[in-house]
Amino acid sequence: MKSVERKGEISSIARQWQKSFREGALVIGKMDGKDVLWHQRLGIWGCFGKTHGKGGKQRDWNAFGQRPSAFRQNLIVEINQPPSGVDTNLQAVFAHDQQGQLWLMHQGRMSIPSARVTETDFADATGITPTRVQFGNGETALYHPVTRLNVAPAVMQEGIGAFIAQCARARTAKAADGVLSANLNQAQDWERGFSPEKTGSYEVKAREAVVAERLHAEVHRSLAAELARRKVRFSNDRVGQYGPDLYTYGQTAKALFEIKSGSAANDVFAAVGQLHIYDCLLGGGYRKILVVPSGIGQAFQGPLKTLGIDTIEFVRKGRRTIFDFAELSRCLN
Fold first, then answer.
1. Is the model more confident about 113 or about 58?
2. Which of 122, 220, 237, 258 could disulfide-pair with 108, CB 3.0 to 4.6 Å?
């Protein structure tokens, strides 16, 4: 592989990359005034902005993630190429292979709270062997292929999505100090068999305005805070394209939580399916726990118990979420 180093060529490639990523995307927010572009079919977002690097020179800042909210908090990987020349302190580079195909490459380095994912960490977690890229000054460095750029936008987007999933896997492995029960290779194989949901538009009749509270996010935040208070290690990183609410690791008992803001039949039915599927994607052996508002119908208790699913109920008092702490303790033991 040979790197692209001329400023004009890099700028042209970057513009085409951004244009291709934007195609078919939904704008779901802003970061530093720049659009956050969401691809529902892949479960990924990207944001292309600018920042200042060494010597105050302006360069591209390209951020990507999987969860379509709290973008900085849920940022998984930056893929930043130098504006010109050689700069291996940045993670990315454009490069041509021997057939002349144009690639986006990344070293595998990432920052996570209180730690850094190194090139070695990335390779160990993903099992991917990097490729050597040669620079015009005679130096070489190892990079991982992210995606081909001279392909149809949908194909390029899928390559980005697959790489983000690998990055999420490496981040989880680093955060867990290598203690991972998830069989993520198997999960990535399985998820290729899932069909994307239908896209397009359909008519929704007008309704009166209502005030919607982000209840799921509030309960999720409260549960995460309670687990942190108990010094229980947990993650909500996605498994490939799919997102368990919370799961623990490094504990005697592995726990998998699915939060529902309602306890109607459709909520419970959806949660049962999600818990069983996520348990399989994570390698199995998880205690499956449904977190629901207080007062779940007695008709569900027997079937849930038969299916091996525990329930933890909560009540809301103002902005506070109060859990059945005795039941939470039992589920974590």
1. 58
2. 122
Distance in angstroms (rounded) separating the CA atoms of residues 219 and 12: 45
- Between 70 and 8, the more confident residue is 8
Number of domains in the chain: 2
- Apex 301 CA angle, 297 and 306, nearest 5: 155
Strand partners, 45: 38, 65
One domain for residues 160 and 228: no
Distance CA 256, CA 278 (A): 8
How far is 104 from 107, CA to CA, in rounded Å?
11
3-state secondary structure of 322: strand
**Pair (29, 140) in one structural domain:** yes
Kindly report the CATH number assigned to the domain that includes residue 265: 3.40.1350.10
Asked if 97 contacts 1 with a C-beta cutoff of 8 angstroms, the reply is: yes
How many whole angstroms separate alpha carbon 134 and alpha carbon 140?
A: 4
Domain coverage including residue 268: 215-332
Q: For 207-262, what is each residue's pLDDT tens digit? A: 455 444 467 888 888 998 899 898 888 887 766 556 788 888 876 678 999 999 88
